[in-house]
Amino acid sequence: MKLLYNITFLFLIICFITSCSQSIDNNNNNNVNQNNNENPEFYYSEAMIEFENENYDLALEKFKDLQIKFPLSSEAVQSQIMSAFIDYVRMNYIEAIFKLDRVIQRYPSYKNNDYTYYLKAMCYYEQIENEQLDGENNILALEGFQQIVNRFPKSEYARDSEQKIISINANIAAKHMNIGFFYLKRKKYLAALNRYKKVINEHSQSKFTPEALHRLVEIYYTLGMLEDAKKAASTLGYNYPNSKWYKYSFNIIGETKDKKSLLQKIFKPLSKKNE
Hints:
Layout: H1 2-27, H2 40-52, H3 56-69, H4 74-89, H5 93-106, H6 113-125, H7 137-151, H8 158-185, H9 189-202, H10 209-222, H11 226-239, H12 244-253, H13 262-274
Helix pairs in contact: 1-4, 2-3, 2-4, 3-4, 4-5, 5-6, 6-7, 7-8, 8-9, 9-10, 10-11, 10-12, 11-12
């Protein structure tokens, strides 16, 4: 996990510095007559030197100074994003999200906003701790990465966002599976059923779908709903014929010939009395 974090961290730095450098180059021609020490590019480069040397407090001061002296410059907007990135590095996620939201609201057409959305989504993604917890970070991170894919399909961050979406969906599916099994062990069948259906209906591409279908077979069989059990097993067999979960379900369905439903057990004695 630490290695993954380091790789992601380096990826974020490289991508952002590259995009910022390109933006600064494009604005150089508009500032040739300014004093080298009194233009936004100079202040920004000074702040980035402190950032790259991991002098984050000094970098924050220089970014803030730039925003005050050149509030309408492109570098001022980039400085706000970099300030948020420093909070991200320090794992001050709430503060980082606040700053990124402010950029998105104030500068909705800013050319580097794909990165702004991406960094915000990463703030939620980094806070995902455990698939067994019913936390909101899964949902917020998922929504954030989906926004990138929908709003900026050609962005350099779109592909990684798609991969993160797959990962988060698997995480959410795992959460539902764990909670469903918790209910199943306590014979709270309807509550378990709802969780497994969520996996099947909302996260059908996850690796947990075959097991979720098998759990439906188990629950329906236990409740005497044999036709529903057969339908679930049939769906499982059609889509995952080589899955071990289909074999388990097939063994259960094989017993239905000798098993009578709860209704049969109840009404058969009554029918005899009425004869």
